[in-house]
Design goal:
6-stranded antiparallel beta sheet, about 25% helix, 6 strands, alpha+beta
């Protein structure tokens, strides 16, 4: 039997795809969603995804601040830049085609 191996990027994308996100209703003018650390299976997985976003993302400016965005699954994902242990939210916004 042959086992199909997936890349780390694919594993991160699958994890992000399966994770519940909530629409940020307090910011309808900037449509995006968020996922809180407490809603994840474990802190370990949350931290791993945050580290991956920061290591593999691209820096872009938004409203005068620079954020690191990771593109995958038709979304861009980002955090607000706090230390890993203080980061509690991963954001995502649909990417325009």
């Amino acid at each position: 039997m042959t086992m199909r191996h997936i890349t780390h990027r694919q594993a991160i994308c699958i994890t992000l795809w399966k994770t519940p996100f909530t629409f940020a209703k307090t910011m309808p003018e900037i449509p995006h969603e968020w996922s809180h650390r407490k809603d994840w299976y474990s802190d370990k997985y949350f931290d791993e995804v945050v580290k991956y976003i920061r290591k593999n993302g691209v820096k872009e400016k938004f409203l005068g601040r620079t954020y690191t965005y990771f593109y995958g699954n038709g979304y861009k994902y980002w955090t607000m830049g706090s230390s890993i242990k203080k980061t509690n939210i991963i954001n995502r916004a649909k990417v325009e085609d």
